[in-house]
Write a structure and sequence with these properties.
By secondary structure, the protein is α/β, with parallel strands linked by helices. Helix content is 28%, strand content 22%. It has one domain: TIM Barrel, CATH 3.20.20. The strands form two sheets. A four-stranded parallel beta sheet has the order 1-2-3-4. Strands 5-6 form a two-stranded antiparallel ribbon.
């Protein structure tokens, strides 16, 4: 039964893996799953490594499903990293919360975060569309 038939409006990010290549390995077995894709709102990945061709696979597949792409975690990103995510993966959303303390500094209980020096330079939402 589809989520809409159950009255659910929440969409998920998929596959949210550690590298674009790992993401692609989770996507390929379910490329044509008619029950799963209506509940996916965004293709997202972490970027630990340099799997550039897989970023373009994610971008191209997301387009076929009418989805945006997101890079949601990497250690100490710089402008070149974000540029590659934009040009190779068509990324419309970056999340910087898990870049160590270089973008957000957590309090002792991890219940609040304060923007660190790189936060404002790297925080970006380029045409992010809510599914």
């Amino acid at each position: 039964m589809h989520r809409v038939a159950q009255g659910l409006t929440t969409m998920v990010q998929y596959a949210e893996c550690v590298t674009p290549q790992t993401d692609w390995s989770y996507i390929t077995p379910v490329l044509n799953d008619p029950d799963m894709w209506p509940s996916v709102g965004r293709i997202s990945y972490h970027n630990y490594g340099s799997d550039d061709q897989y970023r373009s696979y994610l971008r191209d597949f997301a387009k076929t499903k009418g989805l945006t792409t997101a890079q949601t975690e990497m250690g100490d990103p710089n402008f070149d990293d974000l540029y590659k995510d934009l040009t190779l993966a068509g990324v419309a959303y970056w999340e910087v919360g898990f870049s160590g303390s270089v973008t957000l500094t957590p309090n002792a209980g991890l219940t609040a975060f304060t923007p660190a020096a790189k936060f404002f330079r790297l925080r970006q939402r380029a045409g992010d569309q809510q599914p």
